[in-house]
From TrEMBL:
The keyword Membrane applies. The keyword Transmembrane helix applies. The chain crosses the membrane at residues 6-25, 46-70, 110-131, 143-163. Keywords: Membrane, Transmembrane, Transmembrane helix. This is DUF1761 domain-containing protein. It holds the Pfam family DUF1761. InterPro entries: DUF1761 (IPR013879).
Length: 172
């Protein structure tokens, strides 16, 4: 059975905050992004940043949790039988015996997440940006941020499949 690795989800949920700190830094894309988003330093100073970071982390947990379904094929096998091994036919157990931890690597998770960035994140970001009358520069800054971010997150949730105490256990 595929088990949820809460440690991997928690670590992956930190990635958007860390990447955002780097990506939207004034020395990277921060100044250009603020201009394209129509933001000013004064406007950025307003608001409760503690709430913003805590809520951003909570939403990042949702993203990390969802990325398991995108990057870990074994969830698809579980989903075909309703998620309950008690309903499984012998063919499921034969499949899991043969392919149980196949494709559980950082690279595999990163690849699937990168593809999701191109074919899911980009269209959603572009559609919103067009209706908000934002520039293509704004679209590409945000799309590239999220594509890179979920690529790393997907690698973490797919590749880090088990924790034994504090030791990382990877598939053979």
């Amino acid at each position: 059975m595929v088990q949820i690795n809460f440690w991997a989800i928690l670590v992956a949920a930190l990635v958007p905050l860390i990447m955002g700190f780097i990506w939207y830094n004034p020395k990277v894309f921060g100044i250009v992004w603020m201009k394209e988003a129509g933001l000013t330093e004064e406007k950025m100073q307003g608001g409760n940043m503690g709430f913003v970071f805590v809520f951003a982390f909570i939403l990042s947990l949702f993203v990390a949790f969802f990325l398991q379904m995108v990057t870990i094929h074994q969830y698809g096998a579980m989903g075909m039988m309703g998620g309950d091994e008690m309903n499984a036919k012998p063919s499921y157990f034969a499949f899991m015996k043969d392919y149980g931890m196949a494709y559980r690597s950082f690279g595999h998770g990163a690849l699937h997440s990168f593809i999701m960035g191109i074919f899911f994140v980009f269209p959603l970001t572009a559609i919103n940006a067009m209706f908000e009358r934002k520039s293509w520069k704004y679209t590409f800054i945000n799309t590239a941020y999220w594509t890179l971010t979920i690529t790393i997150m997907g690698g973490i949730v797919c590749g880090w499949y088990a924790i034994d105490g504090f030791n990382l256990v990877t598939p053979k």
